Amino acid sequence: MAALTRLFRSSSHVSLIRRSLFTASASTPLESAPIRSQAYSSSHDTKDRNIQWVFLGCPGVGKGTYASRLSTLLGVPHIATGDLVREELSSSTPLSKHLKEIVNQGKLVSDEIIISLLSKRLEAGEANGESGFILDGFPRTVTQAEILDDVTDIDLVVNLKLPENVLLEKCLGRRICDQCGKNFNVASINVKGENGNPDIKMAPLLPPSHCASKLITRSDDTEVIVKERLRIYNDKSQPVEEFYRARGKLIEFDLPGGIPESWPRLLEALNLDDYDDRRGLKDRRITLYVLRVQAIDRAFRNLERRRFHFRL
Ligand code: AMP
To answer: Which of 132, 170, 172, 221 has the fewest C-beta atoms under 10 angstroms from its C-beta?
Structure first.
C-alpha cells in the first residue's frame, strides 16, 4: 500500500490533481465568493477557498441525489467519479472497453485511472473558474483517501447510510432518463425496521411524462452485480469511513426515508435548515457567502458535539 501511495505521489496524475486543487483554492471566480474556512485549521491553506466536501455511502444510498442538491444550494460543483467513468464508457476509446468490463462486474476501477479522470475533470473545472467541490464516489479506497489528503484538505465528510436490503431495492428500481440524465426510481420501498429501528418507507420517484419513454437501467444495477458492489464497498470503501472518522471529519447520517423526509433532516444535520432558496434573494451572492461560512462553522460545532458525545 505504501509503495503504491509513493508511486501515485510521484505520478503525473497526482501532480495534476495537486495543481488543480491548489489553483482552485486560490482562485476567486466572479459568480462565487470564496469561503474563509476559519473553523478548521490544518497544515494546508484553507483560507480564501470554497467548500471541499466528500459524500460517502454504499451504492444506491443516494449520494448523487443529495450531493447534487447541496451543490445547487451552495454553488459548488458536484463531481461524481461514477459519472466520469460512465462518460468515458460512452466514448469509443481503448480505455472505455477496459472500463466496461470492470464496471459490469461491479469491481472498482484502478486508483490510477480514477485519479486521472478526476484530475482531468478538476482541470476542466479550473479552466471554467470553478472553486471548491462536493465529491461523490471518491475516495473509495484508503489509497485514494491518502492521495486526496496529501494534495488538499477536505473540510467535511458526510456518510449516508441505509440498511442493505433497502439499498438493493433502490438499485434495482433505479432508472435514468437517457436524454436529460435525471435519476428516477420505480421501487416502492417499505422495509420493517430491525433492532428497534423505525420502518423505512420510500415512495417511488416517477419521471415526468417527457422522460417516461426514455428510461434506461444502469448495466451494473442487476441483483448479482449490486450484491458484488456492496461486498466490495464493505471490503474496500468502509475503511475510508474509518480514515475520516479517525481525523474527526466524518458526519454519519442515517437516511430516515425518501427525499421528502431525508432532505430537511440532512439540512438540519448540516445546519443549513434556515436557508430557503425559493425566497428570491436580492443579493444572492453575499447571502450564499454568509451561508457557506455559517454552514462550515456550524457543521463543525455539530461535529465537535458528536465527537464529545461518542468520545471519538
Ligand atoms: P457509481 O456511479 O459511483 O456507483 O460508480 C460506478 C462505477 O464506477 C463503480 O462501480 C466503479 O466501477 C467505478 N468507480 C466510480 N468511482 C470510483 C472510484 N473512486 N474508484 C474506483 N472505481 C470507481
So the answer is: 172
Q: Which CATH number characterizes residue 86's domain? A: 3.40.50.300
Supply 10's cell numbers. 510521484
- Inside any domain, residue 91: yes
Give me the phi and psi of 238, to 5 degrees please.
-60, -35
- Cα 53 to chain centroid, rounded: 8
Q: Which of 49, 63, 121, 170 is catalytic?
A: 63
291 belongs to a structural domain: yes
Range of the domain at 70: 2-9+47-163+231-302
- Judge whether 74 lies within some domain: yes
Rounded CA separation 131/133 (Å): 7
**Which listed residue (49, 121, 170, 229) is catalytic?**
229
Number of domains in the chain: 1
Per-residue pLDDT tens digits for 172-213: 999 999 999 999 999 999 999 888 888 999 999 999 999 999
What is the grid cell recorded at 133?
Answer: 467541490
Coil, strand, or helix at residue 11? coil
Going by alpha carbons, the residue nearest to atom 2 of ligand 1 is 82
0.85 surpassed by pTM: no
Q: How far apart (Å, rounded) are the C-alpha atoms in residues 7 and 3?
A: 6
Angle at 150 between CA 149 and CA 152, to 5 degrees: 65
Domain-located, residue 217:
no
